[in-house]
Amino acid sequence: MKIEKLENHQDLGKRAGQIGAEAIRQAIRKQGYANIILATGQSQFETIQELVRAEDLDWSKVRMFHLDEYIGLPVTHLASFRKYLTERFVNHVPALAEVVLIDGEVVPAEEECQRLARKIMDNPIDVAFVGIGENGHLAFNDPPADFEETAPYIVVNLDKQCRQQQLGEGWFPSLEDVPLQAISMSIRQIMKSKKIICAVPDSRKAQAVKDCLSGEVSNMHPASILQQHPDCTCFVDSGSGALLP
Ligand SMILES: N[C@@H]1[C@@H](O)[C@H](O)[C@@H](COP(=O)(O)O)O[C@@H]1O
User: Fold this and answer.
1) Mean pLDDT by 10-residue block, N- to C-terminus, for the chain (245 residues)?
2) What atom of ligand 1 comes closest to residue 43's alpha carbon?
3) How far, in Å, CA of 138 to CA of 85, rounded?
4) Could you give the 3-state DSSP secondary structure of residue 202?
5) Measured from the CA of 165, which atom of ligand 1 is nearest?
6) I need a surface site. Which of 62, 143, 151, 158 has the fewest CB within 10 A?
7) Residues with Cβ within 6 A of ligand 1?
8) Is the peptide bond before 222 cis (omega within 30 degrees of 0)?
9) Can you tell me the distance from the alpha carbon of 139 to that of 6, in angstroms, rounded to the nearest whole number?
């Protein structure tokens, strides 16, 4: 794992998006297509904006997977991650080869996990864009995260710090409105990606960044597993990187 420190969140997003776009181009050149994962949340705003700017990229050869989604939240809800990805990414690039969104409204959610598992097992991931939560989570794998789970997508419970972060970012009117469960890509599945671009801006992530990127690998700091990935770069800014040695 490498760490790159940028001045602010704009520079961070630009750099992460440019490196990511180049990795997508390379995969297309090499094998004719690229499979990618996109994350959501405030931390991904600029990275996704930069990807959308990559007009020379042949998006018709790109299949997009979705990292995590709340269970039971309608697609019309402000906090819906499929709404986020559709409005911030899919609607701004030419037609993709395929868009594999997580439908958090399927009952039971385990059925949706199985559908997604079949899809992703047939389509190994070239480039994964991820973030790190204030509690150190990777996707919606809150601490203590399951590092051994082999299923690609799982149903997870969201802890209070995670739910409070979602409230703090303004996606929900009150803590009670934040769902208690989500469908998340598992840690093992994320780690199978050939390349990982981790964008983590903002001083509110400083402690999580310190714990995950410079502490010991531990499931109490789920994103610390990224230290073991052979091709992962974490992009931090002066705020999120403030406590790094
Ligand atoms: N579930 C999302 C992930 O898709 C994202 O990668 C990460 C960072 O998100 P944020 O930008 O909200 O901090 O955790 C969020 O809660």
Assistant:
1) 98 98 98 98 97 97 98 97 98 97 98 98 97 98 98 97 95 96 98 98 98 97 98 98 97
2) 11
3) 18
4) coil
5) 12
6) 151
7) 39-44, 67-68, 130-131, 133, 137, 139-140, 169
8) no
9) 23
Atom of ligand 1 minimally distant from the CA of 81: 4
Task: State which H helix or E strand residue 63 sits in.
Answer: strand 62-66
Residue 132 alpha carbon to ligand 1 centre in Å: 6
Domains and CATH numbers, the chain: 1-234 (3.40.50.1360)
ipTM field:
0.93
- The two tokens of residue 64 are 């997009």
Kindly report the length of the chain. 245
Query: What does the DSSP 8-state code read for residue 148?
Result: S
In this prediction the pTM is 0.97
- How far does residue 190's CA lie from ligand 1's centre (Å)? 14
Expressed in angstroms and rounded, the spacing between residue 29 Cα and the centre of ligand 1 is 30
3 state DSSP class of 213? helix
Contact 16, 53 (CB under 8 A): no
Contact of 213 with 1, CB cutoff 8 Å: yes
Q: Distance of CA 54 to CAs 59, 94, 99, 215, Å?
A: 9, 11, 18, 35
* CB-based contact 104:112 (threshold 8 Å): yes
Task: Give the C-alpha separation, 15 to 25, whole Å.
Answer: 15
Q: How many CB atoms lie within 10 A of CB 17?
A: 24
CA 197–ligand 1 middle distance (angstroms): 13
